Amino acid sequence: MATMTTFDTLFAGVPVMAILRGMSAEKSVELASRAWDLGIECVEVPVQSEEAARVLGAVVAAGAERGKPVGAGTVTGMERLEWAVSAGAAFTVAPGLNAAVARASAVAGLPHLPGVATPTDVQAARGLGLDWLKAFPASVLGVEWFRAMRGPFPEVPFVATGGIDAGNAAEYLAAGARVVAVGSALEDPTQLPRLAALLSR
C-alpha cells in the first residue's frame, strides 16, 4: 500500500511494540517515554472510547516532540478510525480483519495491522494488500502456530499479540514472530527494561 509510513519502517530492527491500554493520559505518556528511552520505538494506544482517543492524542503529541510514531489500536469500525485520524495516529491496529476498515485506513494514509488467527484470515488479509499481520490472541494460538505458518506463508511478517510478556516474548520471536506486542504486562514496571533486552537479539 502506498502510505507515508510502512510497518517495514515502523518495525525496522525493533521486535517489540508497547500497547498502552486503559491508562490515564499521564501514565500513558510516562510509559511511552520510558519505552522510547529504552529503544522501543513503536507504541500503540487502543481507542475503545472517546476518552481513550484523548489519551491517544496526548501520547501522539509526546511522540511528535521526539519524532516517534504512535498507533491507534482496537480500530474495529469507522467511528474509531475517525478518532484515530483526528488524534494524529501513524497507523491502525485491529483484533480481527474488517475489509472496510482496512480500506478506509489506507485511504486515510494509515497502514493497517489486522488481527488474524487462521490461514483463511491470512489469505484474506493478503488479498486486501495488507502486508504485516497481527496474530491474535498469540498466547491462545501458541508458539507452534507461528512455526506452522512458516510453511505456507514464509513471506508474511506476524506481530504476536495477546498474552505476551518479557518471560515468553523471546520464545515467540524464535518461533517466527517478527514482532511481539506487550500490553497488560506493562503494569509491571520491570517489563519494559526486560523487553528492551530483546532489541540486542
CATH first level: Alpha Beta
- Which regions have little confidence, pLDDT < 50, spanning 5+ residues? none
Structural class determined from secondary elements: alpha/beta
Total individual domains: 1
> Can you tell me the overall shape?
globular
Global Rg: 15 Å
**Helix segment tally:** 10
For the largest beta sheet, what order do the strands appear in spatially? 3-2-1-9-8-7-6
Secondary-structure element order, as H and E?
HEHEHEHEHEEHEHHEHEH
| Strand segment count | 9
Tags for this model:
single chain, 201 residues, TIM Barrel, globular
Written description of the protein model:
This protein has 10 helices and 9 strands. It is α/β, with parallel strands linked by helices and 201 residues long. The strands form 2 sheets. A 7-stranded parallel beta sheet has the order 3-2-1-9-8-7-6. A two-stranded parallel ribbon has the order 4-5. Strand 4, helix 5 and strand 5 form a beta-alpha-beta unit. Helix 2 runs parallel beside helix 3 and helix 3 packs parallel to helix 4. The radius of gyration is 15 Å and the shape is globular. The relative contact order is 0.16.
Topology overview:
Elements: H1 7-10, E1 16-19, H2 25-37, E2 42-46, H3 50-66, E3 70-73, H4 78-87, E4 92-93, H5 99-107, E5 112-113, E6 115-116, H6 119-127, E7 133-135, H7 138-141, H8 143-150, E8 158-161, H9 169-175, E9 179-182, H10 191-196
Parallel strand pairs: 1-2, 1-9, 2-3, 4-5, 6-7, 7-8, 8-9
Helix pairs in contact: 2-3, 3-4
Give me a quick take on this structure.
The chain has 201 residues and is α/β, with parallel strands linked by helices. Helix content is 43%, strand content 15%.
